[in-house]
Amino acid sequence: MQGHSRKGANPLRAFVYAIIIHVAFGAMLGVSLWIQPRTIMPVEGKPVQAKAIDLAAIQREKKKKLEAEKKKKAEAEKKKKLEAEKKKKAEAEKKKKLEAEKKKKAEAEKKKKLEAEKKKKLEAEKKKKAEAEKKKKLEAEKKKKAEAEKKKKAEAVKKKKEAERKKREAEQVQRERDEQEAVSAFGAVAWAIQEEVRTNWNPPAGDFEGFSVLFTIRVDREGNVTSVTMVRSSGNARFDESAENAIYKASPLPIPGEPRFYEYLKEFDFKFSP
Length: 274
Hints:
This protein is mostly helical. The protein has four helices and three strands, in the order H-H-E-E-H-H-E.
């Protein structure tokens, strides 16, 4: 009903509008005549198609409005789509940027790690090299010290050997001197030993003129006879035995008393003849 009422009101509204337009037009005409009076020819009135004009205008307005709204909506959709694409693009750019930053950061971390490892490796190699150099130096010093010790020891051994050689030579010289002096001293008492043995000899019965026996006599430092060993017999056992007994009876024998001579006189050959 409401739609029908509105539809019925439209022709009325158009008619009212037509009257208002004619009144206004007449007023304007009257004012014009009052200001400049002139003869106005009567104009034949034409029927106003108010209803048809108004409906077309409304339809156009409505269509225009719809098109405007459609255009606005389309523009809004386009704007929305563009904004969505822009947002998506921005997000993609942001994501790409974040990924790039993340990649850059990861590469930086990797580079930092590699540099740290390289630095650590270099430090380890440097330390190893330093330790090797130190070890080499210590070994060189140790070798040098060992060589010095060896040389010193060799020199000490050489010096010791030289000293021992000189000592031996000196001792040999001294021994030879002592031996010569001992022999000389023994020669001075040999006649006394012969006399002591002859004094203590108890000759057996018989003629032993021209007999002789050779003994090796061993004595202690005081001249006491410790052993008598026959080296060459006279050919007569009784003579040989009597001579041996005489040697023991003559003990201690008058040997030189110088201690350094004992080494050379502790054992000597003794020839006994009547």
